[in-house]
Amino acid sequence: MTSLTPFLIAIVAIILAGLRIAQEYQRAIVFRLGRFQSIKGPGLYWIIPLIDRQQRVDIRTKTVDLEQQETITKDSVTIKVNAVLWFKITNPENAIIKVADYNKAVYQFSVTALRNIIGQHTLDEVLREREQINGTLQKIVDTTTEPWGIKIEMVEMKDV
Fold first, then answer.
1. Are 119 and 75 in contact (CB under 8 A)?
2. CB neighbours (10 Å) of residue 155?
3. What are the residues facing 84 on neighbouring strands?
4. pTM for this one?
5. 42 by DSSP, 3-state: which?
6. pLDDT tens-digit profile of 7-24?
7. At CA 52, angle to CA 51 and CA 55, rounded to 5?
């Protein structure tokens, strides 16, 4: 019995070391020896210690404040525009594997798309058709971020 005790303690320690908990709003992307293995959570799950590695992803809706952008309209008027973007991770595997930093990627692409869209409209159109521009911006950004496992829920220009 005494020779078996250290072995049992080691087994219990390994089992306990692999236990993980993901909250309801989290998913864990598990990599086994560097390769994608599975998506775990929410709740209690187990990974193999020293072999599996996990990366947690928050799947709640996130808000991104697109800081004030100075851009030129189609009629050569310089305006300052800032917007807010709401997005949610729909596929945690793609969000981690297909893009290095999904937060930064969504932000940078959204800012670029905002500048491009404003450049295609006159100042009068920007002031008059904000809802249409918001919808167009949402479609453009959502189309690009969809392969990354990210859904753009809404885009709103705050100030022009």
1. no
2. 25
3. 65, 156
4. 0.83
5. coil
6. 899 899 999 999 999 999
7. 150
